[in-house]
Amino acid sequence: MKGKEWYQADDVAQEYDSKRFSRGGRLIDHREKQAVLDAVGPVEDKDVLEIACGTGRFTVMLAERGADIVGLDISRAMMQQGREKARRAGVADHVEFLRGDAARLPFPDDHFDAVFAMRFFHLADTPAKFLAEMARVSKDVVFFDTFNDTSARVVYNWLLPMGSRLYGEEEVDGLLSDAGLKLTDATHDFVLPYGLYRKIPNGIAGELRGFDTSVGDTPLGERLASVSYWSASVLTDD
């Protein structure tokens, strides 16, 4: 996986949330959490798996809504941050953090009601293998996001410490088909890149967000969107 060593560093884990989701980054955090909630639906008493759970932003959020959730990640330092969040939120008994390999998930077939991954596929060296494993262990919902190859991400992608894999709609369609998944919904967002939001105060970011969403609602804006959210269901033999 790209940036494996960087991602697992203790100082990266400690500063991850504050660097990405403060200031205008709060808008990104809110949008991503809403995307997850829209995809997985009501989660009370459901078994959910989050792949690449990182510091537990989504893991803890879903546990607070009644899910029994496993957060899988490669970074012990990131998961330690997540465990502390779960403890502070009073949901530690509904969350299990597990270090593991997304290409070989340690769960039986059809084990979870929903499986999702956020901020993961841009780092994935073998996306087909990862998506096939997500589909294998899910009874129904599979959800993930990608960064897009027709967006501003192309311009500044080289500046990232590990680089990113960018996707087009045709490639995602092929990955879904090969994994035995049926696309149920796709939304495209953030014409303005994430990095811009993180650099400015939240108030100014809110004004820019209004412009961003108005442009994003057009055919051109959809094509230039930085990120896409993909919801799919597992195909059955019925």
Q: Could you explain how this protein is built, in words?
A:
- InterPro entries: Methyltransf_25, SAM-dependent_MTases_sf.
- It contains 11 helices and 7 strands.
- With 238 residues, the protein is of the alpha/beta class.
- A 7-stranded mixed β-sheet has the order 3-2-1-4-5-7-6, with helices on both faces.
- Helices cover 44% and strands 21% of the residues.
- Helix 4 (57-64) links the parallel strand 1 (47-51) and strand 2.
- The protein has helices spanning 4-8, 10-20, 25-40, 57-64, 76-89, 127-137, 153-156, 169-178, 194-198, 202-216, 219-224, and strands spanning 47-51, 68-73, 95-99, 112-117, 138-147, 181-189, 227-234.
- The radius of gyration is 17 Å and the shape is globular.
- The longest helix is centred in the N-terminal third of the chain and has 16 residues, at 25-40.
- Helix 4 (57-64) packs parallel to helix 5 (76-89).
- The mean pLDDT is 89.
